[in-house]
């Protein structure tokens, strides 16, 4: 958010982890992040890394330890839930842990995201469904099972 006109991360910079995520998928991601090449100033991010299975997490740590010797200038952020801080990945990388709280007010964050997720020229796209021609929307309900 310090550079409002910078683009949001691309799909090669973010890995959304789930219990089904394989070691091969994470390995490819780590190689993009840790092996030096002309990748510019990208910041690679693993989301929900705490949800990886034990076997995958163990292999991820081993691969990270092996690959990090290729470059000392990598930019990797691993985001985990504080509710699962005792799972493998948060424990293995605990020496790098930084507790983070948003530094900007919610309204400013929302405005930043609206700038990046607004469809420039609305046409017959799904963006017309969401408020202000946004290409992303969150639908929620306080009641369960209402088809949302």
Automatic annotation (TrEMBL):
<dbReference type="GO" id="GO:0016874">
    <property type="term" value="F:ligase activity"/>
</dbReference>
<dbReference type="GO" id="GO:2000051">
    <property type="term" value="P:negative regulation of non-canonical Wnt signaling pathway"/>
</dbReference>
<dbReference type="GO" id="GO:0005730">
    <property type="term" value="C:nucleolus"/>
</dbReference>
<dbReference type="GO" id="GO:0006511">
    <property type="term" value="P:ubiquitin-dependent protein catabolic process"/>
</dbReference>
<keyword id="KW-0436">Ligase</keyword>
<dbReference type="InterPro" id="IPR031248">
    <property type="entry name" value="RNF213"/>
</dbReference>
<dbReference type="GO" id="GO:0004842">
    <property type="term" value="F:ubiquitin-protein transferase activity"/>
</dbReference>
<dbReference type="GO" id="GO:0002040">
    <property type="term" value="P:sprouting angiogenesis"/>
</dbReference>
<dbReference type="GO" id="GO:0005829">
    <property type="term" value="C:cytosol"/>
</dbReference>
<dbReference type="GO" id="GO:0016020">
    <property type="term" value="C:membrane"/>
</dbReference>
<dbReference type="GO" id="GO:0016887">
    <property type="term" value="F:ATP hydrolysis activity"/>
</dbReference>
<protein>
    <submittedName>
        <fullName>R213A ligase</fullName>
    </submittedName>
</protein>
